[in-house]
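Hi both,

Apologies for the delay on this - the queue was longer than expected. I finally got the 2-acetamido-2-deoxy-beta-D-glucopyranose-bound model through. Below you'll find the protein sequence and the ligand SMILES exactly as submitted, and right after that the structure tokens for the full complex including the ligand.
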Amino acid sequence: MASSIAVHSFILLLLFLTMHQSSAQSTPSPSNFPTPFTSVRAAYWPSGSDFPTSSIDTNYFTHIYYAFLNPDPADSFKLSITQSDQTELRNFISGLRNRHPPVKTLLSLGGGSSNSSAFAAMASTPHSRSAFIESTIQVARQYGFDGLDLDWEFPDTPRDMSNLAILFKEWYQALLLDSKVQRKPRLLLTAAVYYANTIVLIGNETRSYPAGAIRQYLDWASPMNFDYHGAWSNFTGVNSALFDPKSNISTRYGIGSWIRSGVPPSKLVMGLPLYGRTWELEDPNVHGIGARAVGPATGTGGTMDYNKILEFNEENGATIVYDGISVSYYSYSGTTWITYDDVRSIKRKVQFARSLGLHGYFFWAVNKDKDWALSRKASNTWRGGY
Ligand SMILES: *[C@@H]1O[C@H](CO)[C@@H](O)[C@H](O)[C@H]1NC(C)=O
Ligand SMILES: *[C@@H]1O[C@H](CO)[C@@H](O)[C@H](O)[C@H]1NC(C)=O
Ligand SMILES: *[C@@H]1O[C@H](CO)[C@@H](O)[C@H](O)[C@H]1NC(C)=O
Ligand SMILES: *[C@@H]1O[C@H](CO)[C@@H](O)[C@H](O)[C@H]1NC(C)=O
């Protein structure tokens, strides 16, 4: 005991001296930030996308998520797996097995078009949570995944959020037990979450994610830093603004709110879009950010993949604008208006994530890049700062 107290005081003294010294120096520049060995460069792979996982260049990724499976409310919230899901799951895993460099695989549950009230019902009782948890572990082990990811879009009430905390705790405990029983590494547990810690703009009630449970039980949380503006509003806007001096709808605000809530940067993986959003302009001569529009650009449904945007710009001789305020691009031709990210803005966003000491970044989604241009730029920026 005595000697450990002595060691302790010595360390405190060292710490004091170090802090004292460094306070006299200028703050380190972002590029001095050490890249954590276990950091995350991830992407989701949408099932049914006709994009074989064997064609993914694993130099640019550490983790690939299978998107998505969902719980079946009619079968006590066990995962619903159709015949075609079985094929997709097997192909996903076999395309990523024995790759160099290797990637880890996570099975993601939920997604943007999933049934939010099914997740709310599942999370609300011990019995349904347990059935769901057991099913997710069984499926992950059966197919050979390294982890599980929850993408519940979105918890609607403060009660949903407190049930989510209980779900994370029970899930994590079940994963520890599974690891012991199976004598295998514990499955990872992660979650895709709203861009900010508190959900204000959608639904009826303000509610905040359980930061304590996220810190304690998740390997990381992945804020979805996109979908900030879209054709649901009749004004053009930026899909994934890094900064917005006029509102809280920005990545800087969102990530900041997560850190202020008590989730450490080392448990945050920032979202990046490999797609843009489109509008049909009301007047082709009024084409800035905030211009009046009359819905999504014709034939797009409101979104466009990065590779299709490059094609569109080329074929239509679109005007391309880099907006330094939001750190984003937009392009327009005739009445079509598109907000998106390109090499320069992706680089700046990854530098931002690194400068805050985040755990990494992820893309939605891996099949939307053009010859790995954005995946490569993000990966190189994260690893080497160029
Ligand atoms: C969504 O889940 C709720 C709650 O389990 C269920 O009552 C409802 O039928 C589901 N809706 C759809 C479209 O499956
Ligand atoms: C919001 O409240 C209205 C009226 O009470 C209700 O009809 C609607 O379903 C609620 N929406 C959500 C997302 O809870
Ligand atoms: C932004 O969020 C802060 C709290 O984090 C709040 O005080 C402020 O009113 C918000 N600003 C806007 C424009 O909504
Ligand atoms: C957007 O504009 C269209 C066409 O003018 C109109 O029908 C629609 O109601 C508007 N939507 C919103 C959210 O204002």
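Main takeaway for now: Residues 1-36 have pLDDT under 50 and may be disordered.

I'll put the files on the shared drive as well.

H.
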